[in-house]
Design goal:
The protein is built from 9 helices and 16 strands. With 377 residues, the protein is an alpha/beta fold. The strands form 4 sheets. A 6-stranded mixed beta sheet has the order 1-2-6-3-7-15, sandwiched between helices. The chain has a 4-stranded antiparallel beta sheet with strand order 10-11-9-12, with helices on one face. A 3-stranded antiparallel beta sheet has the order 4-5-16. The longest helix has 21 residues.
């Protein structure tokens, strides 16, 4: 099968992060088995009780080799732009393939599977691992489960396997990206008809807390101490959201929830900011929870995986980007980069697409990497 054919199959699965991805995990596991891989399957229930599955495949023996990682979940497509077809049917129009996940990042998974199929009858001299993760879009749950439970991942760490996370980079090498953090702050009141004095408005406690969040936002946007000019933008991107979940304006809000999402960067210690958030919560009667935190990707530009990929692609240097990937939680790997077909500008868009040429080039490069890292000359 070609990358396009693999992609058409993958897009047909509605694998948005709020739904179970078990069906597409079954499909990928079956494809890996047909290609000669031994597989591990790691399942878990997410925080909403939805069943999720990640698959790790291994082919070949020995140490080192190569690993490829890609996520099977996609963002929702409720506002899909193409009226003549839905988001879960791959449609070729000119030089593009449209469909949810075509760019982010089922196209990349398709390229890797197609590259492996080209070499199906070639014996490997070093192992090839393929990781298909769940929940990348909502907190990296699948990658975290692999890190904690996969014996194949432990092999990768032990031998510092060259690893490619196949997010869309237009086949440019990314060795540094931002991490992430998420804070949830909740104030509670009592619902009642707003014409009475029986209610307790939860928003009132949230107002002074939000003022502190704004102060931190403004400080991080203007103070160079909180910035890293290797990134564009160079800031923590301190993003504040608010929702009181009130169904009608004549009801006193019984709950108010503020979420803060930040993008951590190398060399910036955000712990003093988090301490200020916790202190503000205590001062104003707001319950603060640090939901998650992931580290930035910081692979040395001199790492073998970076040098090899630059040589293979002809790119002059590795890049720094502002978004995050599963690479943030694949801890213990030092030969780790983000590299894949497609343009990140198309990720999550209402008419997501990938250029056919990127699928062809992506397959070619992934085949070259397998030959270089897993097959003796």
């Amino acid at each position: 099968m070609t990358a396009l054919e693999y992609l058409q199959d993958l897009i047909s699965f509605e694998s948005t992060s709020n739904l179970s991805n078990v069906d597409i995990a079954d499909h990928v596991q079956s494809a890996l088995t047909e290609l000669g891989f031994d597989t591990e399957r790691i399942e878990y229930d997410d925080k909403n009780g939805v069943r999720k599955a990640s698959v790790v495949g291994k082919q070949g023996a020995g140490a080192g080799g190569m690993a490829y990682a890609g996520h099977t979940d996609v963002v929702p497509a409720d506002d899909w732009f193409q009226p003549e077809h839905g988001p879960y049917r791959a449609v070729v129009d000119g030089d593009r393939v449209y469909g949810r996940g075509s760019c982010d990042m089922k196209g990349s998974i398709a390229c890797m599977l197609a590259a492996v199929e080209r070499l199906k009858n070639v014996s490997l001299d070093a192992p090839l691992y393929i990781l298909a993760t769940a929940d990348e879009e909502i907190g990296y749950g699948g990658a975290k489960s692999i890190v904690s439970e996969s014996k194949y991942f432990r092999e990768m760490v032990a031998h510092d396997t060259r690893t490619v996370v196949g997010e869309p980079t237009m086949l440019e090498v990314v060795n540094v990206h931002k991490g992430s953090g998420r804070i949830t702050a909740t104030s509670r009141g009592r619902a009642a008809h707003s014409s009475t004095s029986e209610g307790l408005n939860a928003n009132l406690a949230m107002i002074p807390f939000l003022q502190v969040m704004k102060e931190i936002h403004d400080e991080t946007e203007t103070d160079p101490a909180w910035q890293n000019t290797d990134f564009d933008p160079p800031t923590l991107a301190w993003n504040i959201g608010i929702n009181d979940h009130t169904a009608a304006t004549n009801i006193t809000p019984p709950q108010s929830v503020c979420t803060v999402v930040l993008r951590s960067m190398p060399g910036i210690d955000v712990s003093p900011l988090l301490e200020r958030v916790v202190a503000a919560g205590e001062a104003f009667g707001v319950d603060v929870k640090i939901d998650s935190s992931t580290e930035p990707l910081t692979t040395s530009p001199d790492a073998p995986v970076v040098r090899d990929l630059l040589e293979v692609t002809g790119n002059a240097a590795a890049k720094t980007v502002t978004y995050g990937t599963d690479a943030s939680v694949l801890t213990g790997l030092h030969n780790l980069v983000v590299f894949g077909p497609g343009d990140i500008a198309q990720a999550h868009t209402v008419n997501e697409w990938i250029v056919l040429e990127q699928l062809d080039k992506g397959t070619d490069v992934y085949e070259t990497l397998i030959r270089r890292w897993c097959i003796a000359p």
